[in-house]
Design goal:
Layout lengths: L2 H5 L9 H15 L8 H15 L1 H9 L9 H26 L3 H6 L1 H35 L5 H29 L2
């Protein structure tokens, strides 16, 4: 299945959410299983194609034919220790909070939790800046398309993968801490 062909979109690194959404809605409306003549298998394929094209990492991998996780981007190499530490600290504080049996024990965790929330916010801001720079690089590659460096496309896909995964993990931990 080629998601670009399935949705009738040009094979480009940069596609807008509007382009993808419009193509998806048109085809999904025609093939939805609840519609007369709808086909559940085709609907699933269209949904998966849209999911691939909405994710810059997966879209770039489709274009380059590269495998997942082929390179560790320099930015990811620099951020990895900080992110791993924050995730571990968050998990530990969440466990300690759950195990705290009295108000005093919970109160003693308030300051570390507050500090960790600030560290998570700071790191999420760093990730946001990194993702903004990735979006700019994606636009540069798109402006030169179809001329491109396959290694640069693959590295950009890897960068989007790391940035997206880490952002999701940090937001999840932050939400858990906010609920304490």
């Amino acid at each position: 299945m080629n998601p670009f062909d399935l949705l009738g979109l040009s094979r480009r690194p940069l596609l807008s959410d509007e382009e993808i959404g419009s193509a998806y809605r048109k085809l999904a409306g025609e093939s939805h299983p609840d519609q007369s003549g709808g086909d559940a298998a085709i609907f699933r394929e269209i949904s998966e194609a849209a999911a691939i094209l909405r994710d810059p990492s997966r879209r770039l991998r489709q274009l380059s034919g590269s495998s997942v996780g082929s390179q560790l981007p320099p930015e990811a190499d620099q951020l990895f220790p900080r992110i791993a530490t924050l995730l571990q600290q968050a998990d530990n504080l969440i466990k300690k909070q759950a195990a705290a049996s009295n108000a005093l024990a919970k109160a003693l965790l308030a300051a570390p939790i507050k500090n960790l929330r600030a560290d998570l916010d700071s790191t999420l801001n760093q990730l946001h800046k990194w993702k903004t720079s990735l979006d700019q690089e994606l636009a540069k590659i798109d402006s030169r398309w179809p001329e491109h460096d396959p290694n640069a496309v693959s590295l950009l896909a890897d960068s989007y993968t790391y940035a997206g995964r880490w952002e999701s993990q940090l937001r999840e931990r932050k939400l858990s801490l906010d609920c304490i």
